[in-house]
Amino acid sequence: MALDTEYCSFWGKLKNEAVWNDWKWQLRSRFTKLGDFLEYMGVNADHCETQSNKIPFAVTPFYASLIKQSAHAEKLLKTVVPDSRELELSPYEKHDPLEEDENSPCPAIVHRYPDRVLFLVTNNCATYCRYCTRSRLTRLTPFNTSKSQLQAGVDYISQNKQIREVIISGGDPLFLDNTKLEWIISSIRQIDHVQLVRIGTKVPLVLPQRIDDELLTILEKYPPIYVNLHVIHPDELVTDTQAAISRLVNAGCVLASQTVLLKGVNDNNDTLQCLMEKLLRNRIRPYALFHCDLVAGASHFRTDIKVGLDLVDQLRKSSSGLAVPAYIVDSRGGKVALHSTNLMKETEDAYLLRNWSGNLVKHPK
Ligand code: SF4
After folding, report:
1. What confidence score (pLDDT) does residue 49 get?
2. Ligand 1 centroid to 171 CA: how many Å?
3. How far are the Cα atoms of 17, 57, 81, 205 from residue 41, in angstroms, in the given order?
4. Given the CA of residue 128, which atom of ligand 1 is nearest to it?
5. Whether the Cβ atoms of residue 327 and residue 266 lie closer than 8 Å to each other
6. Which residues are the active-site residues?
7. Which atom of ligand 1 is nearest to the CA of 169?
8. CA 203–ligand 1 middle distance (angstroms)
């Protein structure tokens, strides 16, 4: 991956591509001081908030470079730079809007649906998103889930035979080193009743160097591994991130996307259409467009639900059906996939349906 020469001149050192492509160096060298980051970006810091609501600030050099080169840098910046509005808490917002803690039978497990669990293996991320649903975890002192807690999680999954899917999440599971990651995946794979293993991650976009041969060798050993990629904007799909995605697909991973609908970032048809079509071209199935959760301090990112429904309708009109993700609101009772109502009326012998173009068609009973 190409070394960012602007990054080198900013720090006055690092002229070595091998170092730039070392994912552990990328993690060690993250921007963690907002002032440095904004100076590198050439952005005026006046409107930025240094006293944020304690969501950590960290951006990998790679993702900083990607943002700097984006034609929509100001949109991507909103998602990583602390903002004073994070301190405004709406009465309906919560630190744990999905009530995951209440549905946690043991420390690393969230069991909200009968047949699947979340396995939270770290609270670390390579780069932190300001709208994170799990900010109650990411704001804590950084930790990787301990071996004894991981073992307790594996034991819980093993003892509950109705669990058919395990979603390895966090934080970002690809933050973990390979030894720990392989232990987790192989332990889950040894449980007969678990059919699906899914990893939720943003790492291929913010730290593509992590998708190296050693990791791919592990993922190849335990097929099929489903990877849900957290992607919010088409500008995140650049040469290096697309190459990382391609390596995952070639290693047998099945990729799908999850996108949070974010006001002022991706809440318009052009951006979403471009994103979904670009995902398809990169062998990623657009899976979910999430309404921004009612997490504390994220109201400035939240659109109206009707905006989301309208955007999905527009996608349906302008793109292949493959490019239309489910629009999902995650509420206290679980995920709800929303559709604008297409069954308009029922008569004695027919239904009146609204088709993709908005016209009404009569469909016999
Ligand atoms: S990568 Fe995921 S877990 Fe990490 S801060 Fe972003 S949304 Fe939260």
Report:
1. 57
2. 6
3. 21, 15, 11, 18
4. 5
5. no
6. 112-113, 116, 125, 129, 132, 134, 293, 330, 335
7. 3
8. 10
- Angle 73-80/61-69 helices, nearest 10 degrees? 150
- Integer-rounded Cα Rg, in Å, for the chain is 21
Domains of the chain: 5-87 (no CATH), 101-332 (3.20.20.70), 337-365 (no CATH)
- Report whether 216 contacts 183 (CB < 8 A): no
Of residues 53 and 264, the one with the higher pLDDT is 264
Output the average pLDDT for the chain: 92
Q: Which helix (H) or strand (E) holds 344?
A: strand 343-346
Max avg pLDDT among 88-97, 137-146, 277-286, 330-339: 277-286
Q: What is the pLDDT of residue 161?
A: 98
Q: Specify the residue with its C-alpha closest to ligand 1, atom 1.
A: 202
Mind giving me the DSSP string for 85-108? GGG---TT-BSSTT-TGGG-SBTT
Q: Is the pLDDT of residue 50 over 70?
A: no
